[in-house]
Design a protein that fits this description.
Largest sheet of chain B: 7 strands, mixed, barrel
Helix content of chain B: 25-40%
Main location (chain B): nucleus
Strand order of the largest sheet of chain B: 9-10-17-20-19-18-16
Strand order of the largest sheet of chain A: 9-10-18-22-21-20-17
Family (chain B): Belongs to the ku80 family.
Low-confidence stretches of chain B: 326-342, 602-697
Shape of chain A: globular
Number of strands of chain A: 22
Oligomer: heterodimer
Largest sheet of chain A: 7 strands, mixed, barrel
Strand content of chain B: 15-25%
Structural class of chain B: alpha+beta
CATH class of the domain at 29-265 in chain A: Alpha Beta
Number of helices of chain A: 18
Structural class of chain A: alpha/beta
CATH topology of the domain at 29-265 in chain A: Rossmann fold
GO molecular function (chain B): ATP binding; damaged DNA binding; DNA helicase activity; double-stranded DNA binding; hydrolase activity; telomeric DNA binding
Subcellular location (chain B): Chromosome, Telomere; Nucleus
Radius of gyration of chain B: 36 Å
Mean pLDDT of chain A: 81
Distance between the termini of chain B: 79 Å
Shape of chain B: globular
Helix content of chain A: 25-40%
Radius of gyration of chain A: 33 Å
Largest interface: A-B, 287 and 276 residues
Mean pLDDT of chain B: 79
Organism (chain B): Lentinula guzmanii
CATH architecture of the domain at 29-265 in chain A: 3-Layer(aba) Sandwich
CATH superfamily of the domain at 29-265 in chain A: von Willebrand factor, type A domain
Distance between the termini of chain A: 45 Å
Chain lengths: ~650, ~850
């Protein structure tokens, strides 16, 4: 068998899902937090969560940054972060030796770089100290008397990023401020802000603003930022019309900062950009995004202990002809069905102890397929794209017709002008008519043709739900399994009514909200990883699993009703029966051969379980999900164990 | 018919190789590439063997050791069977392939079968087959026994003792299949013209007498059978029932009010993946073999020359860079690690046993020898969290395969309990939320359960739901609400559909309704079109077909894979009739929406570089933007992948970068700037060819390239300015130069190509693409000189340019901070 690593390896022709993940892993992200330290940001206010406590905007901003860093350090270990503070007189103790100086009244708290445990710990330490002494931040970062020109801020961002960020990364600045009009009277400064922002954009940096407003200090975007940011590419879509206001400027209360950041935490990346043919000659462009994808722990890596440090091992994989021990270049690989054993060769001297299976053909003959041919088999020579097949009522999309996660499509004007209006009209029409679309799609060059259900989603501004279509891959006939059980006991109406009573009490009206259920296994893993990186002790008892059922609430609300249901169930005529010993098809009547639950218990107490036949014991075990292997004494042992527990 | 137990079968193929099987017939082949009709001349035997081979391929494909077969031939010149050697008789029957799990060799042996000059008796052959089968199986009763007789029924049959044979078949519970060449077949609506009388008699014997006496028997015409087996076939696999428990409430301390329902779960949907192909490569000949071949070549001719393909296996090796790199090297180090293309001299191979497992925490490493931390302690079972209104269920959250949840079939209480919940849920219109743990200590999964009420049994259907971690939240601009700079809502815009457009779309949606677009049912009512229960996975079946094909064919050039079965492509396009009926609404939509394809890579379309943006003209703006082209990448290895999978993910990956470039440009346009260096005089001339509606701008530019053959130098320079995509640009440029030089009439462009080479070299040297140049040039040289026709003339021109166009030497490289394996001396030598 191949070594363990090999079966975990992603084969190049493997599934889309794996590709999705690879795609996200391959890209590097750089985020520079650029946080205002003005007096109003430092001003202490009552904590919205804990009234007795005092906190500041700056604290909240740094706290959000820390939380984001903590998350990203595990999900994207290759990403880089930095924190730049402005409007503070704090200076570097030592002048920077390398890279460029930054402008006055700005302080680079955390230079751009990949995260490491000490960097995060330092920030955590600062936040801790601040919690004990709210004035700490003001002490650490004393505010300036007058505001720094925003132009200087952007220029500094540019320099900081230039020094620290890898070229290919996607670079973003998270600008956090509560000042909506930094330069009320100076047109000059406004223009300089605009031009420096352009420079930033040219360097490939996107500014994502997070504007904070409070009741007494509302944030009016139009005062300064809407014009300044206009030239900035901070809207994530290519097709920003300059006459239209970018609406993704988020203005929120400080408490929402973290959740706002979550929306922007992962750089929005399209997984595919393909034509969507509604009919012949009627094609629009769409981009696809993965809104739900399983987040996995990530594979462990191999390291070498070099005494003084650990070094990551470099992994090289190649395809090997085992007899010759030579690696074969990828472009020379052909594909076929496994050959069993070495083929008889004309050559009498053929290696007797050949390890690799071989196939010998006459010169000029080709017994195997090329990689290109393989691709045409997989795609049936279809080019990437979606093709509409037609519409069906919404309710034809069945619950059970699912095999994989969905993807989300959004129009793309850059490939087909007019895509947006067409897409928008289609969306409206489909919502109005309560229909879904069906489409045949090949989403990428090497993926398999699939039939998709196209589910329209209307825009919901409050819930931040975008307008667009979910495309849900449907199973093929090959993927559908039939029900192996065709007959069973059906509960009576009275029992059903009892069940309904407690179901009524345990209904969550809001539906399934994924945010309520963070993956406990993942969190458990991350927490241990973090503790280990921080050289702290991990305390498993402190771990809280939010996915566990809230049994207290269930019992408080429905305990009595559950009990009544159980009583009714016990009274049901078939409830105490155990199935007949022979025959796979059962009729709901008490036959001679069935075992009575109570009887089993009585016999257990009498110690006369031995009187049962093996078949009877087995039937009982089967009905209680107990293993049926072994001889009679094993079975009796298990039944006894069961009786002790029940 | 009850589902057969997979495997545990011995199939005996009884194949007629009598004289009459040598008659030839014309078989229609699938149409050729251009739809031309194709025919092939083959013997009845060859034709019939297709069926046998197909059946055996299926066994090989499934690869079960317990799926065995043997082949008995009759009408052979020789006689070779066990009964004959013991008791005599049974002439002209040969046990051709003894019973075993089939392999490629089995198929090869079948190919060697030739029609004989004699006749053999099918009944004799069947007796031999049954005898061999019985002997092989002994008294294993659970095995399925099959006999498949393939004959043209033109040979004489000994009609004396056939009842005994039929009886024997029944005793052993053997399933008989008779496949007849050109047999009349009512169901298939086939009657052979001019059927010889003795064949009619034989056919009637098989159909009306023999098969009537065998309990489990079928008889069919070969053509029909072949047609049937070419249909994609859906294997109905039964799912295994797994036991689990559904928990409601606190079953440990509040047992009175809590409930445990014993359940069984199994898969309802499961993605059926094709078997993976094995990798092979031509094994280079050793010197000795080469020599041996040379010698034998003198004697025979090409006939004896062979090529050996070796099956490959993946090998993983681990290396470590033991040099302690200080911070200044950090960047490089990171790069190496990602590229997995390390400079070999610094690396040392490490045995896997010496490696430590661990995780990355940012730049810190956290060792974790077990490969995982202690797992979250969990208890097997499905915990009920609560119920949610059906209306709140978001179908798009369904993350994976669906499972059935049944009450334990041996436990009426469990069934009743589950049934009561299922019914109540159905009545109330709710779904249940649960947390599923498949075994103690396994990672939990969240999911939603839906009530399913079958006629005689109730169950739940489970589908996994995302955790908080699985949901990505992206922001998208509103589609319905646009605001201007002042923050006011705009109602008219090119992005917003007009009333007229909305109407046109409504009509379109109505017209494309599939609910009555299918075939008529028995009562003449139109049914819905596209039932996924009739949809075959095209990829799966195509790959399977391909695998079958190459298992039996030794040369794909002369015997290529036939086209896919039309059934596989049934749902590739909307029903023709429907489209025809909807055509007027479609035309109306096309006209009303006026969607225009925006040509790709419009980079060079600008005439003068002075063009200023016109804010009112969206069309113009859009056309000016370059949609994505290809993935920018720094590393060489990445670039290679990109090129192969161009259009794959590369199209979108770089969007973000591209956006930025767009913005820069549009920003520039608002401030009139002096013409930057990018406006090249050559651009205007190439512009003439461009047509906005065409798919590609430069007809000479391959779709996955950034550089066309029409004006490569200009494309090259322009694309370089975009930065970030240097590797791809260099790669494309190299390819384009080579193509142009090796194309006919290249001499006309010699000067231009020298210019291109010079520029390319310069860029390679400066942009750390030295390797690319040093790899390209020797190859290019080889192509020019060695290949046919090549272009020796051009190469001599390159030589004339001299040293400055040669490979990049280590000295030059060093100056530019790179590495080269060529010495200064070899760089000079290279051009001589």
């Amino acid at each position: 068998m191949a070594p363990y690593d090999d079966w975990n390896r992603v084969d190049d022709d493997d599934e889309d899902e794996l590709q999705d993940n690879a795609l996200f892993d391959a890209k590097k992200d750089v985020i520079l937090f650029c946080i205002d330290c003005s007096p109003s940001m430092l001003q202490l206010r009552p904590d919205p969560e804990e009234e007795a406590k005092m906190t500041s905007h700056l604290y909240a901003a740094l706290d959000s940054a820390m939380n984001l860093q903590k998350r990203k350090v595990v999900t994207g270990p290759n990403d880089s972060f930095g924190i730049l503070l402005f409007n503070t007189t704090r200076k570097l103790n030592t002048p920077r030796t390398e890279g460029s100086e930054i402008k006055k009244n700005m302080f680079l708290y955390q230079p751009i770089g990949p995260l490491s445990a000490p960097v995060i710990q330092e920030l955590i330490q600062l936040l801790h100290t601040t919690q004990e002494n709210p004035e700490e931040l003001r002490k650490q970062f004393p505010p300036t008397d007058s505001r720094v020109a925003m132009g200087d801020v952007f220029t500094s961002c540019n320099w900081v990023i230039r020094d620290g960020a890898p070229k290919t990364a996607t670079k973003r600045v998270f600008l956090i401020t509560d000042e909506d009009d930094p330069h009320p009277s100076s047109k000059q400064l406004r223009i300089s802000a605009q031009t420096t922002l352009e420079d930033l954009a040219q360097a490939g940096v996107v500014v994502e603003p997070f504007f904070i407003q409070t009741e007494d200090k509302p944030f009016d975007v139009t005062k300064f930022y809407s014009t300044v940011l206009q030239t900035n590419a901070f809207v994530d879509d290519t097709d920003l019309d300059p006459s239209v206001l970018a609406e993704s400027i988020s203005v929120s209360r400080i408490g929402d900062l973290l959740s706002q950041m979550k929306f922007r935490e992962v750089t929005k990346r399209a997984l595919f950009n393909i034509p969507f043919e509604l009919a012949q000659g009627f094609t629009i462009g769409v981009k696809g995004y993965g809104l739900v994808t399983e987040q996995k722990k990530g594979e462990y890596k191999y390291f070498v202990d070099l005494g003084d440090r650990l070094e990551a091992a470099i992994v090289k994989t190649g395809q090997l002809d085992e007899d010759r021990q030579v690696e074969v270049d990828k472009s020379n690989i052909v594909f076929g069905m496994a050959v069993v054993g070495a083929a008889p060769s004309n050559d009498d001297d053929a290696e007797a102890d050949s390890m690799a299976a071989t196939k010998v053909v006459k010169s000029g003959q080709r017994p195997f397929y090329t990689a290109d041919e393989m691709r045409t088999f997989r795609t049936l020579s279809l080019e990437p794209g979606l093709k509409l097949l037609g519409f069906k009522p919404r309710d034809t999309l069945r619950f059970e017709d699912n095999v994989k996660h969905s993807q989300f499509i959004y129009p793309d004007e850059t490939t087909y002008a007019g895509s947006k209006r067409t897409f928008s009209a289609l969306l409206k029409s489909m919502i109005k008519k309560k229909v879904i679309g069906l489409a045949r799609g090949v989403l990428r060059r090497n993926s398999t043709p699939t039939i998709y259900a196209i589910l329209p989603q209307d825009e919901d501004v409050n819930e931040m739900e975008p307008a667009g279509f979910h495309i849900i891959p449907l199973p093929f006939a090959d993927d559908i399994r039939s029900a192996p059980i065709e007959e069973g006991y059906i509960a009576s109406d009275s029992l059903k009514d009892r069940a309904r009573a407690w179901i009524n009490k345990t209904t969550i009206k809001s539906g399934y909200i994924p945010d309520s259920y963070p993956n406990p296994a993942l969190a458990f893993h991350y927490d241990q990883l973090e503790a280990s990186a921080f050289r702290e002790e991990f305390n498993p008892d402190a771990f809280e699993d939010l996915t566990e059922p809230n049994v207290d609430l269930i019992h408080a609300k429905a305990g009595k009703l559950l009990k009544e249901w159980k009583v009714e169930l016990a009274n049901d005529h078939s409830a105490t029966l155990v199935v007949p010993v022979t025959g796979s098809k059962r009729k709901p009547d008490a036959s001679q051969n069935s075992i009575d639950l109570l009887e089993v218990k009585t016999r257990f107490e009498e110690g006369s379980l031995m009187k049962y036949k093996v078949d009877q014991l087995k039937a009982f075990c089967r009905s209680q999900n107990i293993p049926t292997s072994g001889n009679k004494s094993d079975l009796i042992q298990r039944v006894e164990d069961w009786c002790k527990l029940h | 018919m009850p589902a057969e137990r997979a495997g545990y079968t011995v199939s005996m193929f009884v194949v007629d190789v009598s004289k009459s099987m040598g008659a030839t017939r014309t078989v229609t082949l699938p149409p050729g590439k251009n739809g031309e009709e194709r025919f092939a001349e083959m013997t009845h035997l060859q034709y019939a063997l297709q069926y046998v081979k197909f059946k055996i391929q299926d066994m090989i494909y499934n690869g079960r050791k317990t799926d065995q077969c043997g082949v008995v031939t009759f009408g052979t010149d020789e006689t070779d069977n066990q009964i004959n050697s013991r008791h005599g008789g049974y002439e002209n029957v040969t046990e051709y392939i003894s019973i075993a799990a089939p392999s490629a060799t089995t198929l090869r042996k079948l190919d060697e079968l030739e029609p004989s000059d004699v006749f053999g008796d099918p009944i004799d052959a069947m007796i031999v087959a049954v005898e061999a089968q019985s002997k092989h199986l002994g008294n294993k009763k659970t095995w399925t026994r099959k006999v498949i007789l393939v004959t043209d029924g033109e040979g004489p049959i000994e009609l004396e003792d056939w009842e005994a044979t039929a009886k024997k078949l029944n005793e052993l519970n053997i399933a008989l299949t008779v496949v007849g060449v050109d047999f009349d077949d009512e169901e298939f609506d086939y009657v052979q013209d001019n059927k010889p009388d003795f064949k009619r008699v034989n056919e009637e014997f098989f159909r009306d007498q023999f098969c009537q006496h065998v309990n489990d028997s079928v008889i069919g015409n070969l053509d029909r059978v072949l047609e049937q087996i070419s249909l994609p076939d859906v294997k109905t696999s039964r799912s295994t029932l797994m036991q689990n428990v559904l928990r409601i409430g606190d079953v440990d301390t509040r047992t009175e009010e809590a409930m445990e329902i014993l359940i069984k779960t199994c898969k309802c949907t499961a993605i059926n993946r094709p078997k993976s192909f094995k990798k092979f490569a031509i094994r280079p000949k050793t010197a000795r073999e080469e020599e041996a071949e040379q010698q034998s070549m003198d004697v025979d001719d090409d006939e004896k020359k062979v090529v050996t393909y070796a099956q490959l296996r993946a090998r993983t090796e681990y290396y470590v860079d033991k040099l302690d790199r200080k911070d200044e090297d950090k960047e490089e180090q990171v790069k190496i690690e990602e590229d997995a293309e390390p400079q070999s001299e610094d690396l040392e191979k490490v045995e896997k046993e010496e490696l430590i497992r661990g995780f990355k925490y940012g730049t810190s490493y956290v060792p974790c020898p077990e490969g995982q931390f202690p797992k979250l302690p969990t208890k097997k079972g499905i915990d009920l969290i609560g119920f949610i209104p059906e209306k709140k269920f978001r179908r798009e959250y369904s993350m994976g395969e669906v499972q059935y949840i049944w009450g334990n079939p041996d436990n009426p209480t469990a069934q009743c309990a589950l049934s009561s919940i299922v019914q109540a849920m159905y009545e109330k219109g709710v779904l249940a939320v649960g947390r599923w743990v498949t075994g103690d200590g396994r990672d939990p999964k969240m999911g939603v359960m839906s009530p399913a009420l079958f006629e005689k049994v109730h169950c739940l259907l489970w589908v996994p739901m995302p955790f908080a971690d699985d949901v990505r939240k992206y922001t998208f601009p509103s589609l319905h609400e646009l605001r201007n700079k002042k923050g006011e809502i705009i109602t008219e815009h090119a992005y917003l559909p007009t009333e007229k457009q909305l109407e046109a779309m409504d009509d379109f949606v109505d017209a494309m309704d599939l609910m009555e677009a299918g075939d008529k049912d028995e009562e003449g009512n139109r049914t819905e079109w596209l039932d996924i229960r009739e949809s075959y996975n095209p990829s799966f079946h195509r790959l399977k077909q391909a695998m079958f094909h190459c298992a039996v064919v030794s040369d794909l050039e002369t015997n290529p894979l036939p086209p896919p079965h039309p059934e596989l492509m049934r749902f590739f396009n909307p029903p023709k009739k429907l489209v025809k009926k909807a055509q007027s609404t479609i035309d109306n939509c096309i006209k009303t929406f006026n969607v225009k394809h925006v040509p790709k890579v419009v980079k060079t379309a600008r005439k003068d570089g002075h063009n200023h943006a016109n804010d009112d003209d969206d069309e113009m703006l859009l056309l000016d933007r370059k949609p994505s082209t290809s993935k920018p990448s720094q590393s060489h290895s990445q670039a290679k992948i990109t090129q192969k999978s161009a259009g794959d993910d590369s199209e979108t990956e770089d969007d973000d970068d591209e956006i930025l470039i767009d913005k820069v440009e549009s920003a520039k346009r608002t401030n009139p700037l002096p013409t930057p260096a990018r406006s090249l005089p050559s651009l205007s001339q190439s512009e003439g060819q461009y047509d906005d509606d065409s798919m590609d701008i430069d007809p000479q530019r391959d779709p996955d390239r950034l550089i066309g053959r029409t004006n490569p130098l200009a494309d090259f320079k322009l694309n370089l300015e975009r930065g970030d995509i240097v590797t791809k640009v260099v790669e494309d440029m190299s390819a384009v130069i080579q193509e142009v030089v090796l194309a006919p009439f290249a001499s006309r462009r010699s000067t231009e190509m020298i210019e291109c080479l010079t520029e390319l070299r310069k860029v390679c040297l400066e942009e750390d693409e030295i390797d690319a140049w040093n790899t390209f040039l020797p190859e290019f040289k080889k192509e020019c000189i060695k290949s046919s026709p090549g272009n020796k003339e051009f190469w001599s021109k390159v030589q004339k340019v001299g040293r400055r166009i040669s490979v990049i030497s280590d000295k030059e490289a060093e100056k530019n901070g790179g590495i080269s394996q060529f010495s200064e001396h070899s760089a000079i030598e290279f051009l001589e």
